[in-house]
Amino acid sequence: MESWIIPLLGGLGIGTAITAIITKILDQLITRKNAKQTLKYKEKREAYLGLLDALHKAAVEPSDANSKSFAMWQFKVDLYGTPEISEAVQGFRDSQPNTTERNRFFLQLKESMKKDLNENM
User: Fold this and answer.
1) Residue 112 CB neighbour total at 10 angstroms
2) How far apart are CA 116 and CA 54, in angstroms?
3) Closest by alpha carbon to 121, among 54, 34, 61?
4) What is the spatial distance between Cα 106 and Cα 96, in angstroms, rounded to a whole number?
5) Rounded to two decimals, what is the model's pTM?
6) CA 90: distance to chain centroid?
7) What is the pLDDT of residues 26-65, one digit of tens each?
8) Cα 54 to the chain's mean position, in Å?
């Protein structure tokens, strides 16, 4: 009598149910991964735009408050950005205004930010 139960259960779609469960679990894992990538992108973008805004304010209106704001955004970039970006920011900061060296660091900063954000999209 028990010999007919296994084929009956198999015919009712146990394989389909297991496939549906596995598919649901994989979909949730992919969704979670995409959400993490989106959050990472947003954090980086916010840090980069904040740094550029603070840099602009410090250049246009030098003050202690604007210097502190730039330092805070630099710290955020150090947390979320690549080492290449952190090095470019520090090089920019350490260089003299209106020099070829500073322009080179600014271009390196811009290109590094673009590359990093495009890789994380």
Assistant:
1) 20
2) 20
3) 34
4) 12
5) 0.76
6) 20
7) 788 888 999 999 999 999 999 999 999 999 999 899 999 9
8) 20
**How far apart (Å, rounded) are the C-alpha atoms in residues 54 and 33?**
32
- Find the length of the chain: 121
Cα(99)–Cα(101) distance, integer angstroms: 5
Sign of CA dihedral 34, 36, 42, 45: negative
* Six-digit token string for 116: 């990093």
Which tokens sit at 69? 């704001």
Task: Report residue 109 as tokens.
Answer: 């900063």
- Tracing tokens 């990538």 back to the chain, one arrives at 37
Name residues whose C-beta falls within 8 Å of residue 33's C-beta, 6 or more positions apart in sequence.
Answer: none
Query: How far is residue 93's CA from residue 2's CA, in Å, rounded to a whole number?
Result: 80
Residue 102: both structure tokens together: 């500073």
Q: What letter represents residue 8's amino acid? A: L
Integer Cα distance of 56 and 6 in angstroms: 73
